[in-house]
Write a sequence for this structure.
């Protein structure tokens, strides 16, 4: 499991697995939900950190290939999504992602696992590098 997201009503949990699949759980009944992705297509998610799924499907390179991004973080306003790439680049796009090429890209970290977090009011994005051990604060203007 590389990410966990809650539905807004707290009833469902989605877990992204490194092989490209998403597992869903019903928290009320404590069971895995055996349904297609399209059934939860309209579910409103409180967070979105999954590297997979329809809102960011434009980021998946091609059928069967796994995404090149290593971290995904949707803003609290649900209007933006930040991603990191294995080369240390940070990209910012509108959410949901309709066109992967329309992004603002920033190269600030050494190639490594970079983690991202928006502040509660979306005024800042923090990025924490792995290899370079840096913490950067990005202000939206």
């Amino acid at each position: 499991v590389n990410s966990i997201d809650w539905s807004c009503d707290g009833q469902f949990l989605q877990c992204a697995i490194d092989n490209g699949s998403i597992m869903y759980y019903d928290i009320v009944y404590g069971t895995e939900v055996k349904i297609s992705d399209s059934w939860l297509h309209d579910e409103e998610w409180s967070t979105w950190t999954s590297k997979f799924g329809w809102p960011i499907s434009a980021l998946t390179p091609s059928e069967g290939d796994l995404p090149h991004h290593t971290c995904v973080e949707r803003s609290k306003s649900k209007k933006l999504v930040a991603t990191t790439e294995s080369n240390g680049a940070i990209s910012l796009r509108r959410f949901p992602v309709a066109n992967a090429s329309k992004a603002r890209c920033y190269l600030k970290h050494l190639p490594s696992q970079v983690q991202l977090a928006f502040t509660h009011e979306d005024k800042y994005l923090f990025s924490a590098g792995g290899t370079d051990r840096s913490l950067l604060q990005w202000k939206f203007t």
